[in-house]
Amino acid sequence: MMTNGVVHANVFGIKDWVTPYKISVLALLYEMTASKIPLPERRRLNKLILPLQQGPDLTLGQFLKTVEECCPQTAYAVKRRLREMADGELRDMEYFFSILPTPFTAFDTEAYKTSVVGLFMRHMLLAYNKLSFSQVYKLYKSLQQYYHSHYAKRTDGQVEDTVGDRIDKEELDTPLHESELSKGPLSQKQAEYFLARQAYLLKNDENKALKPAALQEELNNMLKFNPDFAEAHYLNYLNSMRVQDIFLSAHSLLHYFDRLILSGNEGKSNGDEGYGRSLRYAALNLASLHCRFGHYQQADLALQEAIRIAQESNDHVCLQHCLSWLYTLEQMKGSDSAVLTEDSVKMAAHFCLPYLASLGIQSLVQQGATQGKTAHKLMDALKDTDILHWKHSLSELIEISLAQTTSIWRMYGKSTMALQQAQLLLNMSSLEPVNFGVQQNNTEAFTVALCHLAELHAEQGLYSAVSEILQHLKEQFPPHTQHAKLWMLCDLKIQFERHMNEGKYYLAEPLITAMSALNKTEGLYRKAQVLKALNRTTEAYSILQRLQVHCEKAKCTEIVIRVMLSTAELHWESSGFFTALPLLLQALALARQHHLQCLASEAMLHLAFTQLMLGVPKQALSVLHEAIEPILAHGSVMDKGRALLLTARCQIASHCSLFIHPAAAYFCKLNCKERLRDIHYLQAQLHHALGQTSKRNKSAMLFRLLDQELQSPAPPVYMRL
């Protein structure tokens, strides 16, 4: 049988078969054993041997270029050897196979029988000797096509056949194009190497793996020749998950376990329990698939099936995996899964499963953070898991722990600690071995850390550094990769805040649609902010009320507090300062209950502004003195500017001013012209009250220039924080 220039007797029975590319590799190995090569070049060629043998077939141009980079002299010798066979006769190819060193006699060369080269030569000789005469002739014709297709582009001429057509035309295949020569079936070793490499890249560096369409084409070609190749079906499942194809993912996953059971591999390695093991893990994987796509009912049914089969087989390890997915499923549904998670951690520790135990503790820490547990309790729990991670060299969980710590510190408003943890993760050397030239820095944990870094730099007005971080994220995680949504949302939020700070609401509004596609809650909140800025109060209030009800059900405490603060600002616009007070006090109590220092400080700023508007500036100053220290230590540039400006206004109301110039410096850093206009207005008022005419005129002129540039009516300064 011959397909696309590849001669083989049985796709499923022979592990290796002869192809024109493998004849080229044999020519390279022959030249390496027959000629003297300088030691540096020989070392480079030795490193090249294994990838050439195990990798997919290359075109002649690619093969010669690869060899030429290591040793030009050897590349020329290989080219000459191939030309002798392609431009000669069939007996020239026969002669080449007859002079190859025999693995059992070549004791002093690389072709010794126990070496990689010797095993490869032996397999090729055995496969060649099993070919019939017609198959040998077809192999020779395909070698001619393989060689001449490389030079056809240069000569643009027809290649004449040097061997007469002595075989029935019906047995010959159609002429091949160069791009089709590598589309034949891979040998077993080539297929295993290809699948192992692509699976490793998908896990650790998706950017370096084949694109989804290209990988799908290769897998389809592989399954065309061997439909029962179970591992190919599993890689097809992973590839389909990249593009969120639920139908093909489920189809490939079921095919994988069907082929695994039919092949008998599980039964041979695990006795009679092998088939049952495949069935229960098939149900468990199907449950995890439905969990990822949000099909909770189907996931629950598959999970119950896996639990039932595992209980019948008394498989405690599978039951622990099922319990882990069970509490994960409950979390996705929004239910309280703390009891299930604690049971999972205890049982995993009992059965000596450190990976599952650590995942359970990290899940408990995440739940504790959302429920308002104190930081020191969460950090103590993470410290205990870190000891377990380092003891068992669980590099992936160490990264997750650091990323989780970064997120917790940010949530609690400790930006300095968050920055330190993110830098610690990015500078950590992985404990995992480096395979295929891939470093372990392309996981979700690194994406989260880099997104936090970008947001922290944006809060300080360092937009050039933000651009560099986001550019790195775009290169490391292209849009088609599974973690790209994280940096996409981060990028949109940073752009939105920047446009809002600069008063460019017409640029911020189009970003809401893209943000809503990635996170509906964030999109709704930003839409309310834009509507509030455009004085569309009724629409903004309606959205905020809907959002508050939704977030209270989903227990999104941070968004609930932000919604309360935005609703209080809407009350300010209608001079409802007394109406805003209960909302602000409720938001402050909620923030303190959950230890959210950043949001608590922001609520205190709003409370102080409300007191100022109610005519009690001294009480407002006392509230500000409590809030301003954490804001200056951990707050964003905008928060620092707002706090200092509010303090200056309270001092003006009390007939003194110290903080108006630092506030102006912070707003200049953000290019926040609307806030600068307010500052110049206040400065003009202050200088007028003090009789400083020249300074008053200067501040009034700056106010007028900014007012003309913005071309929007300035809201009363006393109506905005």
Automatic annotation (TrEMBL):
Function: Component of the anaphase promoting complex/cyclosome (APC/C), a cell cycle-regulated E3 ubiquitin ligase that controls progression through mitosis and the G1 phase of the cell cycle. The APC/C complex acts by mediating ubiquitination and subsequent degradation of target proteins: it mainly mediates the formation of 'Lys-11'-linked polyubiquitin chains and, to a lower extent, the formation of 'Lys-48'- and 'Lys-63'-linked polyubiquitin chains. The APC/C complex catalyzes assembly of branched 'Lys-11'-/'Lys-48'-linked branched ubiquitin chains on target proteins.
Family, as annotated: Belongs to the APC5 family.
Keywords carried by this UniProt record: Cell cycle, Cell division, Cytoplasm, Cytoskeleton, Mitosis, Nucleus, Phosphoprotein, Repeat, TPR repeat, Ubl conjugation pathway
A GO cellular component annotation in the UniProt record: spindle
BP GO annotations: anaphase-promoting complex-dependent catabolic process; cell division; positive regulation of mitotic metaphase/anaphase transition; protein K11-linked ubiquitination
Coiled-coil features, chain-numbered ranges: none
Source organism of the structure: Sphaeramia orbicularis (orbiculate cardinalfish)
Gene it is expressed from: anapc5
Anaphase-promoting complex subunit 5 N-terminal domain span: 18-150
Protein name in the entry: Anaphase-promoting complex subunit 5
Pathway membership, UniProt: Protein modification; protein ubiquitination
